[in-house]
Amino acid sequence: MSEGNGVYRHMIRVPYAHVDQMRFVYYANYLVYFEMARTGMLREAGTPYSTLEEKGVLLPVMAAHCEYRQPAHYEDLLAVDVNFPAFKGVRFRLDYKVWRVESGAGPTPGEDALLVEGYTEHVCMSPDGKVLRPDPAFKQLAGH
Amino acid sequence: MSEGNGVYRHMIRVPYAHVDQMRFVYYANYLVYFEMARTGMLREAGTPYSTLEEKGVLLPVMAAHCEYRQPAHYEDLLAVDVNFPAFKGVRFRLDYKVWRVESGAGPTPGEDALLVEGYTEHVCMSPDGKVLRPDPAFKQLAGH
Amino acid sequence: MSEGNGVYRHMIRVPYAHVDQMRFVYYANYLVYFEMARTGMLREAGTPYSTLEEKGVLLPVMAAHCEYRQPAHYEDLLAVDVNFPAFKGVRFRLDYKVWRVESGAGPTPGEDALLVEGYTEHVCMSPDGKVLRPDPAFKQLAGH
Amino acid sequence: MSEGNGVYRHMIRVPYAHVDQMRFVYYANYLVYFEMARTGMLREAGTPYSTLEEKGVLLPVMAAHCEYRQPAHYEDLLAVDVNFPAFKGVRFRLDYKVWRVESGAGPTPGEDALLVEGYTEHVCMSPDGKVLRPDPAFKQLAGH
Question: Within chain A, how many helices (H) and strands (E) appear?
Fold first, then answer.
């Protein structure tokens, strides 16, 4: 499911659970969508995060940012693209773009709409809270 | 994606967001998984719930029940089967079974594990809160 | 905050995050409200669940049930009463009632409205998954 | 519940639902905590958000940011302070600080720990999506 627009693309159909009374996807859910794409990216790279945790490598989030350009709606089919630009020392950033690929009311005419852009920043950490040098798995992903 | 074991099968990879410090999927999330399967079933039947709502047919939940047999874990691939046994007057019930199809640590040996069973009960309702006769869309789904 | 109507009463003001596009509290959130009341009950009884977990006593949910009588809305002030009727062997049940005490639009005239009733069933479990005899902390709570 | 450190302080006891298998509050939940504080601030200012919506004033989130300094844990008592620094044209920003006031395992020695800092940016919007001039209710809150 990798696509040209990033290291990895995660697809999600918006459930009723995520939509508020403005009929918009509630803003906190995009951080969950980012995580789903992150999980998928690591999985496809052959180093699932569950395996990293068993090795004693945690990836806590140090910062998160979202810009909300257009709302997503119930039953919209969303594509979440994740990119891994580069390292900055021990800290690294992942960039995300959320697109509406198909609206809940059927295929959308014209081009895909960019709904949300954002990023997360992480470090590699040991279970007792010590910052680790980045796992080699991330070297291979960086630079996209 | 329909399968023999129900009207519709919804697949979900468990995100980190849904797992608690017991390392189990937190129990309320299964009601969201049920809804995702419900949404998918209606969609595949050609009557997406978003279209029903536009026609003025709401489907509030009147009751929900879950039996938790085994825990699901982070990155497990789950299959949520939904069945539509029959009507009881204006009220109707949907039955769900959640299976682990693949564990987060790789393909599971042996047969799929049944993790959770449950049901939801609904009525068709107008936007101003009046109970409606069941929409014809549901007649065609019932009896499975 | 204990009240006559149960062992413990938990208060929550409904956030926007919990309300769907029907303008109702989304049905899965009540299981979270039940847990908040459960956590508070144990805490007030002098045996916080976090302390139980440190002693190696987990309380997984074996079953959950909800009857939705009336919807809750954004900014409603809810009271969640929890009762502990009795043990059935190693398995025990907790009963919940969710009331609207004050509506989002100001004090509600007349009596409190009962919105949701339900229960959860639990066992005491060791971290490696063995069912334990009920912790003495629960003996003191049962029978209400 | 207003305190010196901001326009408004919202208290929340961390439920099990919000904690992940790292034993940390999952990062998306802080955006819900920010919203709870926002809702409370408007409510205390005499202009509940539910009333604003009835008047046709929506407050969609245009951007959100979090810096995660220390993790919160299950049963921690958190204080979420919200500040309203000023307007920038039609767009306005709210600043948040999340403190641990008491740990799940009992009162914390020493001073309160700052766990998370962040902000959200909003506009006032009509139900049909037009940007509105800021509601007078916000003028009275700004400048803190």
Answer: 3, 8
> C100, C76 in Cβ contact below 8 A?
yes
Distances (CA, A) of C72 to A93, C69, C95, C126, D101: 40, 10, 19, 37, 30
Q: How close A26 gets to chain B, by Cα (Å)?
A: 15
With CB atoms and an 8 Å threshold, state whether B62 touches C68. yes
Segment A49-102, tens digit of pLDDT: 999 999 999 999 999 999 999 999 999 999 999 998 877 788 889 999 999 999
B17, B21, B27, B29 alpha-carbon torsion, rounded to 10°: 0
Nearest residue to D40 via CA among D77, D4, D12, D74? D12
Q: Are D28 and A32 a contacting pair at CB < 8 A?
A: yes
pTM of the predicted structure, to 2 decimals: 0.93
β-strands B77-83, B124-125: how paired?
unpaired
What average pLDDT does this structure show over D96-121?
86
Closest CA to B51 of A15, C22, A110, A106: A106
**Interface membership of C50 toward D (CB under 8 Å):** yes
Cα dihedral sign for C107, C109, C115, C120?
A: positive
Contact D17 B23 (CB under 8 A): no
